[in-house]
Amino acid sequence: MKLLLVPALIASFAPAALADFPFKQKQQEFVTRKPDEVAHTLQNGTPVERNNLALELGILAPNPSRPGADSNSPCVDFHHVEQRPVKLRAGAENVVLLADSPECDSLYVAVFDKAPKSEWRHVQTVRLPSNTQRPEVSFAELIQLGVSEIVVHKETTRDGGGAHEQDFVVLKLIDDRLEVVMNATERSEITLMNRTPNEDDNLTQTQTSTFDLLKSPPNSAATYRLLEKEVITDNKTTITRYRVWTWDPELERFRPTPFDGGDARPAPLPAKKPAPKTPSTTQPAGDKSTPPSAQPVPK
């Protein structure tokens, strides 16, 4: 008799145990057959369609009480939405949606990966603050030919309290996640009020950096390095220094090293047509700071 009761007890207990299980099931991935229709719905869909789609893609408005954090409210108003076909990983096909929302003070970067059955799987959405200036997003093959990284210029990370900062950021798709593989200050300005009653001017320190592509030496881990020229102005004193950012395959990020650039600028790009021959010139003595050929990082 007892053996007959055991299966019945298990059968009656199982549904209740599963219903009260404390862990949530894994959220189902968002898949679409037409990324262009996703972009169209975000910009021109009904309020309900835009609300549901924004929740599915993780397009969330910023939290007004916590700068830099997201809220639980979806962002549903967009000034412009565009899609970019690009390869972010070897052997893959990707589409990146750029959704600009002045109402949410944000630029959203949504990445889709080509999946079987002609479907596109949503991988991740990254929010870039744009309350003071819209970040500039482009794509560049920095590490491996045919595979692009997401390059972000002028990402505002601080604005207020006498301090303003914009960053230069490189995002790389590693496995199924966008990782920040380089982050450097592109422009900053700090203003200090009068220190003593006798000083009637403010102390201002600014820093501006520009980034150029440098072709890597043979057998390097990446196609390009990045040459940073940093100009620091402290009141009336200006200092210029250089760094070279090189890809580290073990850490999977760019690492900086000092570069003795002096006051030299990157060499201009070669002309498409060969220039007429001119008499050779001799480089002035002491000028040994000319860096290798470089070109600006795409914007």
* Secondary structure tally, helices: 3
Gyration radius from CA atoms, angstroms: 26 Å
Number of distinct beta strands: 16
List SSEs in N-to-C order: HEHHEEEEEEEEEEEEEEE
Low-confidence sequence ranges: 1-26, 278-290
Oligomer class: single chain
Reported for the largest beta sheet, the result is: 9 strands, antiparallel
Whole-number mean pLDDT? 82
SSE-based structural type: mainly beta
Distance between the termini: 78 Å
Overall structural domain count? 2
Task: Give the overall silhouette.
Answer: flat
Strand content: over 45%
In which range does the helix fraction lie?
A: 10-25%
Would you kindly provide a brief summary of this structure?
With 299 residues, the protein is mostly beta strands. It is built from 3 helices and 16 strands. The chain is 13% helix and 48% strand.
Polypeptide structure, described:
With 299 residues, this protein is mainly beta. The chain folds into 2 domains: 28-131; 136-267 and 291-299. Helices cover 13% and strands 48% of the residues. The chain is built from 3 helices and 16 strands. The strands form 3 sheets. Strands 8, 9, 10, 11, 12, 13, 14, 15 and 16 form a 9-stranded antiparallel beta sheet that branches. Strands 1-7-6-5-4 form a 5-stranded antiparallel beta sheet, with helices on one face. Helix 2 crosses helix 3 (47-57).
